Amino acid sequence: MKRLPPLRALQYFESVSRHLSVKHAAAELNVTPAAISQQLSKLTDILQMALFKKDQRGIALTVEGERYFMGIRTAFRQLEEATRRLQEQRTPPKITVSCTPGFAMQFLLPLLPQFHASHPAIDIRISTTNRLADFGRDDVDFAVRHGSGNYPGLQAEMLIDDPLQPVCSPRLLKGKKLLKSPGELSAYTLLHDEHQQDWRLWLEAAAASDVVWDQGPVFADSNGAIEAAKQGYGIALARKTMVKDELKNRELIMPFKIAIKTGIAYYLVYPSEVLMREEAQQFRAWLSHAVKSR
What we know:
Layout: H1 7-19, H2 22-29, H3 33-47, E1 52-55, E2 58-61, H4 63-88, E3 94-99, H5 101-118, E4 123-128, E5 142-147, E6 155-160, E7 164-167, H6 197-205, H7 222-230, E8 236-239, H8 244-248, E9 265-270, H9 278-292
Parallel strand pairs: 3-4, 3-5
Antiparallel strand pairs: 1-2, 5-9, 6-9, 7-8
Helix pairs in contact: 1-2, 1-3, 1-4, 2-3
């Protein structure tokens, strides 16, 4: 069996590759930049090839370095997983899910009682953030991301892809004529989330391009826009799946049937090795079923 590089050198290489910074890797590992450089030099000598190259921003991985990093990163994740599984034999299993505040409030939290009823031994922890989860750094098992589904090195499964439609409170139209055509939206406030262009796309599909699409407040995520719509402040775009309860309770209505697809959807994203844990398999299966039955 050929001699493997020292574990410390591999650990330092993985951190530098992830940050593309010796300084940031040193801070993460609580060592000096000189110690990092020494181990990288040792690793380069052992492998007899360059793993990094200099560029305008500092350093970048070579083609060989990128390939090696993907393998090393997977190996370290498996080591972390094996260690966590061993430790969790003495503690209740837990799943940590990273998602936006909007997805948590509109979809996940209302359904969690169902999960706990069928899986009472599994502790679910929700980390709400608009920042993309870093599975190599954050203590996260799954992430729900709102995007195109292209997440290199990770598994991505589409959860929600229904089209966007305008929603508003019935109170907004009280005492006024019902909205008969999209062109009448000029008289109302349009509410936006971080995807402000969605209103432009919807108005184009509705043949109402004369309506000024970029007017109105912009919220950090869809939850803010939907809450403002519920309070009667204006009209937001939403997916029916995400506002099912509000529509049922008549907190919101859909004044138009016109709907658009934007190429953006909600995806469940995770490293493949997370499914080595039974509780992770159970959560993934439950969430998939919950979405389909929503």
